[in-house]
Amino acid sequence: MLRTTGKRAGVALVSILGVAVLTFFITQLLPGDPARIAAGQYASEEQVADVRAKYGLDQSVPAQFAQYMGDFFRMDLGTSIRTDQPVRDELTSRLPATLELGLTALLIAVLLGVGLGVTAAVHRYRIGDRLVQVFVVLASATAVFWIALVAITTLVNGWGIFTSPTGRLPRGFAPPEHVTGLYVVDALLAGDPATAGAALRTLLLPALLLGVLASPSIVKIVRSATIRALESDFARTSRSFGYPARSILFQDGLRNSLLPVITNVGLVAGFVLAGGDVIIEQLFAWPGIGGYAYSSLQENDLFALRGYVIAIGVAYVLINTVLEFVYGWVDPRVNLAEGS
Amino acid sequence: MAVVDAGAALRGNLVSRLRVGNPAAVVAFAVLGTILTLGIVVPFVAGSGDVAQEYDGLLPPSFDHPFGTDRFGRDVFLRCMAAARIDIALGLAVAVAVLLVGSLIGAVSATFGRGVDAVVMRATDVLLAFPGVVLALVITASLGKNPWYAAIAVVIAFIPLLVRLARSKALEVRSADYIAAARLSGASTWQIATRHVLPNSFKYPFVQSTLVASWAILDFAALSFLGVGVQPPDAEWGAMIAEGVGDNLLGSWWPSFFPGLMILLTAASFQVIGDWLDRRLR
Amino acid sequence: MAHRSRLLGAFVASGLFVAAACGSGPASDDGTGGGDGGSAAVDELVVAYSQDIDTLDPHQFKTDAGYGVVGNIYGTLLQESYTDGGDGVLSYAGESAPYLAESATWDETQTTLTFELKEGQQFAGGEPVTAEDVVWSLQRALSDVGYVQAIGQWLNITDAATDIVATSDTTVELHVTHYSPLIEQFLAFQIFAIIDKSAVEAQAAADDPWGAGWLAAEATASGPYVVESRVPGQSMTLAKNPEFTATDLGDAPERIVVQSMPDPQQAFLALQNGAVDVIFGMTPDTAEALEQSDGLELYDLEYSLVAYVGFNYQDPVLQDVRVRQALSYLMPYDALREDVMKGYAGAAYGAVPYPMRDSLDETGEQVAYPTDVERAQELLAEAGYEPGELSLTLSVPASDESLSQSAVFIQSALRDGGVEVEVNEMSDADYNENLGSMQMFLDSWYSWGQDSVYQMFFLLTTGVFTNYTNFSNPEVDELVRQAMATADPDERRALSQRAQQVIIDEAPWAFLFTRDYLVGTREGVTGVTHANDANLRFDQLRVTN
Amino acid sequence: MELVLADIEVVYGKRTRNHAVRGVSLRVRRGETLAVVGESGSGKTTIAKVAAGLQKATSGTVAWQATGDGGVGGGPGGSPARRQRVHMVFQHPVQSLDPSWRIRRSVKEPLRYLGMADDEAERLVRRLIAEVGLDAQILDRYPREVSGGQAQRVAVARALVADPEIVILDEPTASLDQTVRGRILTLLADLQVRTGVGYLMITHDISSVRRLATRIAVMYRGLIVESGPAAAVLEDPRHPYTQALISAVPVADPRVRWDGVVALPRHPDGTLAVTSCPVPGSCHEHGPGLHEVGPDHVAGCTKAVDPQKAATT
Amino acid sequence: MSLLTVRGLSIQTRTGVSLVRDLSLDVGAGEVVGIVGESGSGKTMTALSLLGLLPDGVHVSAGEAELEGRRFLDGPRMLARPNATMIFQNPTAALNPTMRIGAQLVRLLRFLDRSGTDGSAGRRRGDVRERAAALVSSVGIADPAAVLGRYPHQLSGGMNQRVMIAMAIAARPSLLVADEPTTGLDVTVQAQILDLIRATVAQHGIGVLFVSHDMGVIAQMCQRVAVMYDGEVREFAAVDDIYHRPGDAYTRELLASASDHPRPEEVADGTRAG
């Protein structure tokens, strides 16, 4: 157990290092002269040179790389060219918004994915299954920016079901006291259900869009795993004893199909926290790190973009490492060391 | 046995297989075929709709303009069809590139093992640590705004996926009994790789590449939507949606709705075809 | 989409402002125009900007949103005076009034300007505003910490270290080489904001003596508002500064929420459903939609914000004046004003368009090269280009909807005239970095103060770094130089107009149109400032109903 | 020619050091069948792979020795094509044929690598297919289109087509039905008579051993615990494990009373307990040496020399 | 009177392919009746149909069956409690891989308690684990506590089959259906499992329907045997008659192939689809 833990941690560490190195070299290719951008359009050559020196951009690429890796190990992501603030702080301050959106979306994706997957498995090869399959194809072929647009036009502007996409809280509500940074949670902790409700209503539409579009891979996996489990020898054993259908579905079917979901959650989290998030945060004026990344890209803000990419890469590696542990803990078969 | 028209037999066979096997696949082929045909034919016949103020701006869908006109007075239908060429061609090109490069790297990794394999696996680990769109976004930003760069970025983003798949399938095949038999028959490593491993493991990446085409179209549209892919005023579905965002919110839904619908139909068709191939080939 | 509004292009330029050569001494009364209304101070106003507030350092410039907000947090020695036209708009009265200063006095030689500070004025942190703070703030402005240095020469100060002096705790002297009315105009802008020296120095580091890192995110307000809270990337809430005593803030809104809304349509919808009270800088589309909505108000403010296609003189093709003129004749001026700008635009006659003072065009209707395809083709033929032979690249900043839409129309129109154009949409960062090296580019520019000489100096005289076309004409250079040294308004106008005519003939730009400044509000919001710097003064906003 | 495996050790896992095979020596001659018998985990499959050269031994040698029979002989075609020494027949016949190749190409594969001209190879393939009792039509089919029994015949044809010295049979009938199983065994015996090929048969199935083996080696936990002529080992097993193994086979005759099954203590995970030797003072104290218990018959048990003692259980 | 009577059982797939045709057999109380045949002969389908376990797309098309005089058919189980239970080939796969053995036994015991017809209703929860341990030790497992705490993949096939037998017995069935219960197990383990089945059957006096392809196992386990080929029963008779006076050609072939000595004519007749 200890050895596998060490090995996994080692692999994670190597991946994180790789993330750092790759990020450096990709962002090194970014067009434009970051120093000139930082110094501003009206800076003299001397000022630009000063800025270049300040950010260490006057050094050779290997020297910059050494500096960068040193900073990386000190968890220093540099200073934003745009705002002159430490990138780490800027990311941290925006992270709760992204986490609130991403985690809600992830929750929706998992609940929807498991629900539909199990439904399809129970109704396998029949009409219920077909309908779920149609959903899977449509949801995985839908462009997130398009459906977000359609949803805003109809659900928000047309029928007023959801609040206007102007950030995390509608007008008239003050952000709750910072505890977790998740408005809904913080508002509930502060005993302010009205604010919590308003925050949830604002959160719901972007989270739903992300969650629904992220769910197909979970549906597919849950469906096939549940079918496999329900058609397995051990489910047949359960039927031979005459266990009720519900017991077979939960104890034999779902219990065994949730395992592959765990590994898939990593991929879904990637979409929800980064891929789709950049676009959704743009469209919903959501003040998270996705919007930050996009602005940084627009402004060729080398350090901010680099910080974002590293943060996402590292977070992704960590998420997957944690999931591997969870998987090993949940699935007895993975942990072979216990056997002998 | 009488001489039969082999082509007709094959066609009949294919159609009947499709019909019996999967009505969804028939629909998917039909949809994709229609879009592709229109994408090729329409621009020749009616122009590619890139002339501003050819018509009045923001006319709603009608008989003359089935998808309406955009703010520049261009026919949205014509532009959607002109875009179809670019999007589908790019989706397919990305899929083929990913398939070839990914399978090659995967097969090499599986064949040579050890050092090469370890390096390739760590590299894919690292690449997979970045969600596809983010990776593509950063790469495009680095290379510069250009549809080709965006396509390359999408290719790079998907390659690790195919490498993984090709490698694991190649490893699976390599441990099969018939590989042992071939080795005992005197086949060299190269002969085993080219004659047994590749043909038997190729179909999995091949099936996957159909899905890659679907995802590539989505990602490419997303990049264009974010402004780093195809640049307006060139027609591309994602870019068209980006252009139509404002009009959409102010009540003219058609300039952005139809390109999105095209993406949906095309990507869904590739998905269905992928699922169908998956079932047929396994 | 964050910085969709390409107003950045204009306001990058707005860092450079010039004041009209009118104003004599300090203005008469304490006078701000003030809103009518007379109602109690409104509790909260939500103002939407298209960008995020990225820095609070008044000497840094990144976005117009950040810039506009800073002006409400920091006080200056002088401020603009406004006249209330009764239509909800407060217009610049053409002179400056004391603000944090009690008085501003020139000596007889007009080389020393002495400021007496108002008594009892404090920073939000509680520290008194002293002469030392003023000196340090002005020195900081003129240091290399930001871009303001570039305008420093216009204050006629030789050395900031020795020419800005505190003679007592409440007295500051500026020693200048010679008098210029521009000096007072400058000092009314937030680039000469008064900052709490001790607070900043407590945070300054060895490699950052001016505390740029700290000031970017923090502010010790000397102006009417303090930063109450901030959600990065989303909003900033300002509250009335309790320490501010320079003017009476009695009727000013208690709280201003500055909301970042990158998407103009979203902002408009938010205004419609009451989530937002004021939109600063609307697009023509949303302005048009707003005018068709009930319960909303559009403030359509005319400015000399000129949109133009710049022709790079370093390009061999564009060096030929016939080509430049031909291209100018091909531009679809009417379509741009009507279809892109939805009529919220005027004609631009030359580089100094109406309503800039001293413009050759007094009505805003003249066009130098009206659309004329035949004439254009003749000129092209003279220059040796048959239809279809010429193909050019037009760069445009993607974030400015109006400009990128204009590009589509221009591309189409030029194609009709036999010139192929490839449109290159660029991010703001790319675009700004490549200004000066692009073949043809679409840009818009606004000079604070709307002064013709200033405008021509920065855009069209040889060697100036914002001369993005690399236009170089000895006659223009000389005329501008003379005008800058001339105090007499009539003589200055004559020199300016001669230069303008040369520029029109040379056609270094295609002079497309002037853009109106569009502020949308819900009904009853007044006190919108038609300011020299095209910024809102939050303390002037009122709500009546 | 004779295939000689000497002191083969195979260890899996660098850290876990799982001894799959612990010092096994074997020899297989042309014309004879050596059956390696054992239960799962005994290391018999590993031995097969090592003998085939598909896996490297951690230590020990695999070598060919001349036996004086000249190594020349009438192959199926009487051709001097004998350049291949060893081939193999696998447990799962269909899986041992490349699914994307027609049967013809699979059977011909060894000949192609020997550089034989195609028409000659075709003749040889057809002859072999006939010899394994199949119709030539089957050559145009794909593996998925034939039955398990047919596929195994094809596999036998392929194994023999290049006229090897030794064919390794890895559980050749384990996945086949009872009646097919009998026919394949008969075919193998028949082909051995005709071609003089030697078999190294790996199996857990005692009844197929009875049908084919000339010699038997019993493996247990990576060791050979007993080996000798088939009849001797089957009729007079000396090692307690061999006795348990043989006694456990149910006899297909209801009149034969089936009792006296030797129970072997096991751990819950199925591995036999180390103290499984029913005889006190077991070989585990003295090392697993093999002792001569009869003509060419050895057993790795100190008490096995005295059948009286060993049989008491 | 026999315990189990099956008359005219036919099983078909949804597409009409016939898997079992007109099968009749009976099992007496305390009797072990074998079904022997090769793969595809329909023997496993017959066994599964009796417990309503036919896979999707396969159904009983005709026939009837009686257990202890009560009629039932394929489909939802019609009996109030599982008075017929089954053990399977590949016991490791027949147990839920994500539940410890103890939990699976407890699940079964609780279920049996709830269904309550074995007179044990209302037992307290506390003793369920003890009963589970007792069950496990009753099938010859030396260290019940250790086995209950393990997952199926941590136990050998033989051990898992013992657990399956314990579970099958826990339901106090009158009929045990055993579908190739020792196929895939090592021969020495097989001997022990077969011993256990014989002992258990004798102890509880239940009838067994024993499905196998192995003529040796059948010979040693059963009193009567049905020989199946291609969905039909070729011969149903006492085991001694089948082995020594086979009335059917196929039975003779089976016996021949199972014997140690080859018959020369086998080579000639080619191979059948396997």
TrEMBL record, chain A:
Principal location class: membrane
Keyword annotations from UniProtKB, A to Z: Cell membrane, Membrane, Transmembrane, Transmembrane helix, Transport
Query: Does this entry carry the keyword Transport?
Result: yes
Which GO molecular function annotations are given, in alphabetical order?
Answer: dipeptide transmembrane transporter activity
| Compartmental location | Cell membrane
The record lists the membrane-crossing segments as 12-30, 101-122, 134-162, 198-219, 308-330
Q: Name one GO cellular component term.
A: plasma membrane
Q: Which family does it belong to?
A: Belongs to the binding-protein-dependent transport system permease family.
Instruction: Give the protein's recorded name.
Output: ABC transporter permease
Provide the species name: Jiangella ureilytica
Automatic annotation (TrEMBL), chain B:
InterPro entries according to UniProt: BP-dependent_transpt_permease (IPR050366), MetI-like (IPR000515), MetI-like_sf (IPR035906)
One GO BP annotation is: transmembrane transport
Looking at the UniProt entry, the stretches that span the membrane are 24-46, 88-112, 124-142, 148-166, 211-230, 257-277
Enumerate the UniProt keywords alphabetically: Cell membrane, Membrane, Transmembrane, Transmembrane helix, Transport
One Gene Ontology cellular component annotation? plasma membrane
What is the membrane topology noted in the UniProt record heading this document?
Answer: Multi-pass membrane protein
Tell me where in or outside the cell this protein is found: Cell membrane
Q: Which CDD domains match?
A: TM_PBP2
Q: Does the keyword Chaperone apply?
A: no
Q: Where is the ABC transmembrane type-1 domain?
A: 84-274
Q: Tell me which domain of life the UniProt entry assigns to the organism this sequence originates from.
A: Bacteria
Record-stated family = Belongs to the binding-protein-dependent transport system permease family.
Under what name is this protein listed?
ABC transporter permease
Species, as recorded: Jiangella ureilytica
Automatic annotation (TrEMBL), chain D:
Query: Would the keyword tRNA processing be found if you checked this record's keyword annotation?
Result: no
Q: Which CDD domains match?
A: ABC_NikE_OppD_transporters
Q: Does the keyword Cell cycle apply?
A: no
Q: Which GO terms describe its biological process?
A: peptide transport; transmembrane transport
* Keyword line: ATP-binding, Nucleotide-binding, Transport
Pfam families noted in UniProt: ABC_tran (PF00005), oligo_HPY (PF08352)
Start and end residues of each ABC transporter domain: 3-246
- InterPro entries from the xrefs? AAA+_ATPase, ABC_transp_ATP-bind, ABC_transporter-like_ATP-bd, ABC_transporter-like_CS, Oligopep_ABC_C, P-loop_NTPase
Q: Which GO terms describe its molecular function?
A: ATP binding; ATP hydrolysis activity
Gene3D superfamilies registered for this protein in UniProt: P-loop containing nucleotide triphosphate hydrolases
The family assignment reads:
Belongs to the ABC transporter superfamily.
What protein is this chain from?
ABC transporter ATP-binding protein
From TrEMBL, chain E:
Question: Residues in domain ABC transporter?
Answer: 4-255
Question: Which GO cellular component terms, listed alphabetically, does the Swiss-Prot or TrEMBL entry include?
Answer: plasma membrane
Give GO MF terms, alphabetically. Answer: ATP binding; ATP hydrolysis activity
Q: Which Pfam families match?
A: ABC_tran (PF00005)
Task: Return the InterPro entries for the record.
Answer: AAA+_ATPase (IPR003593), ABC_Ni/Peptide_Import (IPR050388), ABC_transporter-like_ATP-bd (IPR003439), P-loop_NTPase (IPR027417)
Membrane topology term: Peripheral membrane protein
Q: Where in the cell is it found?
A: Cell membrane
Keywords in alphabetical order? ATP-binding, Cell inner membrane, Cell membrane, Membrane, Nucleotide-binding, Translocase, Transport
**Chief place where the protein resides:** membrane
Regarding protein family, the annotation reads:
Belongs to the ABC transporter superfamily.
Task: Name the chain's protein.
Answer: ABC transporter ATP-binding protein
Organism expressing this protein natively: Jiangella ureilytica
